[in-house]
Amino acid sequence: MASIRILAILLGLLGSQIHQSEAVCGYESCPETKSNMINIHLVPHSHDDLGWLKTVDQYYYGNKHNIQHAGVQYIFDTVVAELSKDSRRRFIQVETGFFAKWWEDQSETKKQLVKKLVNEGRLEFTGGAWSMNDEAAVNYQSVIDQFAVGLKFLNDNFGVCGRPKVGWQIDAFGHSREQASMFAQMGFDGQFFARMDQNDKNKRVDNLGLEMIWDASETLKEMDFFTGMLYNHYSAPPGFCFDSLCQDDPIIDGKSYDNNVKSRVDDFLNYASRLAGYYRANHIMVPMGDDFQYENAYMNYKNMDKLIKYVNERQASGSKYNIFYSTAGCYLNSLHKTLQSWPNKTQDFLPHSHEAKSFWTGFFTSRPTQKRFERDGNHMLQVAKQLSVLADLSGEEQTKDLDYLRQIMGVMQHHDAITGTEKQEVSNDYDRLLYDAILGGANTARDALRLLTNQPNGEFESCLRLNISECAFTKENTDNFVVTLYNPLAHTSTQYVRVPVKEEIYQVTDAKGNVVASELVPVPWQVLALEFRNNDTQHELVFKASVNKIASYYIKKVDKEESDLLTQVKQSVYGEYSNLEVPNRFKKVHSLKTAAEPYDDEETVVQNSLIKLVIDNKTGRLKTVEMNGVSENIDQNFGMYKTARSCHYIFRQDADLEVLEDAFDFTVYEGDSVKEVHQQMNEWISQVIRIYEGVNRVEFEWLVGPIPIDDELGKEIVTIFKSGISSNGVFYTDSNGREMLKREKDKREDFSPDLSEQPVSGNYYPVTSRMALQDNNKRLVLLNDRSQGGASLENGRLEMMLHRRHIFADGSGAAEAINEQQFGKGLIARGKLFLSLNAVEDGATASERVAEKEIHLPFWKFFSKPSNTLSEFTTSLPDFNDLPQAVHLLTLEPYSKDEILLRFENFLDQTEGTVVSFNIREIFDDLDGLEIRETTLDGNLPLSDMKRLKFNHDGSGSSSSTPEYFTSLHKPLSAEKSEDASAFTITLKPMQIRTFIIKKEVA
Prior knowledge:
It is a single chain. The protein is an alpha+beta fold and 1003 residues long. The protein has 4 domains: 22-350, Glycoside hydrolase 38, N terminal domain (7-stranded beta/alpha barrel, Alpha-Beta Barrel); 363-452, Substrate Binding Domain Of Dnak, Chain:A, Domain 2 (Up-down Bundle), CATH 1.20.1270; 453-572 and 600-861, Golgi alpha-mannosidase II, domain 4 (Beta-galactosidase, Chain A, domain 5); 891-1000, Immunoglobulin-like. 24% of the residues lie in helices and 28% in strands. It is built from 19 helices and 54 strands. It has a 10-stranded antiparallel beta sheet with strand order 22-29-30-31-32-43-38-37-34-35.
């Protein structure tokens, strides 16, 4: 008898092993549906913010429940336990950053269980990036990077079954076209979200348009991307939240006096009937979850089990509803099988409002210093990744530091991080995380430079306070130091370098000993007046540098007789500062040795060989700009919107714009290389207008704060550029730093916005790299150094919001005012805008693209003490200069111990550029390549394996009796070292990005 029992057990184990080996994931694991019924896809999920009201760690560990009850680690614990009890149950996991943290602490037994759940499609990763990123304030490079990090983690641990097929952007505050394009290029089949302008949603509900096909690129082909809007936010139906955080009634069955099965099923089916009337297919998706739910997954699944049981029992009495556990991917696959057609979408979903008085346009600018710090993090990440490849770094600490910087940059893309919509304590924690991560990246870069240059003991210090013209290293070594410049761009770049120094005479030489012309320019006294700034360095040394990848310049103090190429700028002062009570110690900045040249009484002309600026002496403001053969009257000023009701998210205008009317005091400094106009608007706004010889753009470096709130009103601070260009209510903004979108005042693509209460806020759009307007002849462009909100409220006028400070805490989220403090006072922010004026002609905007790249990824400065030998390279570096000028080196980074990830981008669009071809065999060899393969945009799926669901547009005229798919439009590149060089040719269409993995020789 015992032997029979043992045999039965063995057979059972064998059966379970056979069942497991036959298990499938992806669409093949989806539950069966019924074609003659309304299929209700019940999708359990938890939305887990990587910081918002609490810090990332506080959310993960469940700390500070007095702020918000949330403990993410317990969600994973209980969900895995409940999924393992019933093979029908499903759950979608989105934020890989949290999951990876939990995964590290699990036993091997638990990991095997989770892998089984993934392999059977019961735990489905959706989205899969490190965080659920914002879509308004992010740059495309950072979005690609954070998806690559998250998806690589899933690929490394779960293989093909861990790869998401669907985007899940359910909590972002509006949606960009470029995000949809990136999803498509990563091989995703579709996406779902839950926020849309109220008027847009209402119209789509009436027209069965909540699900659509998004033409996600004006330039790229086959970027059609299925996009669905959830009806009831991302929450469970009203009354059916079964989580421990909710108060809804459970389903009570059995012989209990309180048995409520009939009423609960009636209510649910009434809801399902309404929902089915808003969607085209016989499938509806019902999310079951919300913020940080499923800490007690048992409670959720026990009640959902009952709901499924009792709803389906009614089929026997004629019910047409079929309900089951499902996932977002399975729902999308079911829609694909219906062969249904869907409405078209071409623009974006920004901005959005949930009511007439609430346009979510404030977060485009909120926390401006944090938005700039995030750009610094990306800058260091690209530098550290490239240098790691070039120096072939493989040390454990170096790898750890680089991975940490990648991950923290993923956290910073989160829709409550880069947006500035988090609590102040959380913002402080983001700054801490990013600061530590940048320092780690700087250490990695230093280690690489010690190997690549002839300075094995070089300090290669990074100065993170250059935004206020301060660097401790140059202050302490001001007599003699080396600045090593790293160029992250593909091609040799020529840029001006500014280094904080004392007021001395310096000589700059390059690595060959050639003297380089330089100029000494005073730091604006408003910057010197910052209480937290050390004022040992009151000047900046300016020189022009040309850098392929790495170049060092030697700076030393010299006697006057030795200096033949150093010039001191000439100065002219207009206006008096006495009424502003400027400390005497700062007035001396204006006491330069060279006398000022006389200027015309009416206006001051500041010009170089490319640009002419005219300043009105009466107002102290910019009056005229002449460049590129075009002259235009451009008046620049500052203003504020006073408001009692704006918050982190929302810009609410309570009164008309107040423009600063007082005349500006200004000082002109003129050198051969750089000319500057230092302007003082009032006690808390100042600016430098700057032009460089040979640089075809005007730089505006603004300083704003502390914003006064003595009148107990919040304020939105803007700068305005008014021109005579006849733009007819049309202007253009970028989409995450890529393609441009046409904006029309008071209009949207698919609906009429309600601008009855907020006509200004409702016309603001996110600007992450540039905005522009034009008529038939002239084009005016502003480029920026961080995400900001922008608008064109009158013809010929561009307006950019620079800074915000408020005292109102509404119910939109953080429950506190966005009133940032710094050393006991309101936050002071400093940043840059860049202006370009051009004639309107085909391809003219290509120069704007080049400027975007230089602004986004300029030289990174490293500082060292001089060594005995000049900094010649100890190793040869790959040369990317042979790439066509339209090609951007988007990514060069270590992918694994023996692999390198490489991305090339044709950054011109269809109106600016053409198809380009180039050969990378030499680069491949320089990187010690053995073989190369092409992947999807994220780097984690062979491009040859991409098979993306294709959906039909309404009116497309195409119909098929079987489901259709998108595959690669070109033959994916795949080559080995032994093959001829012709196998390594790459062709890039306008706006195309191609991604490759190079397997390299390992010593």
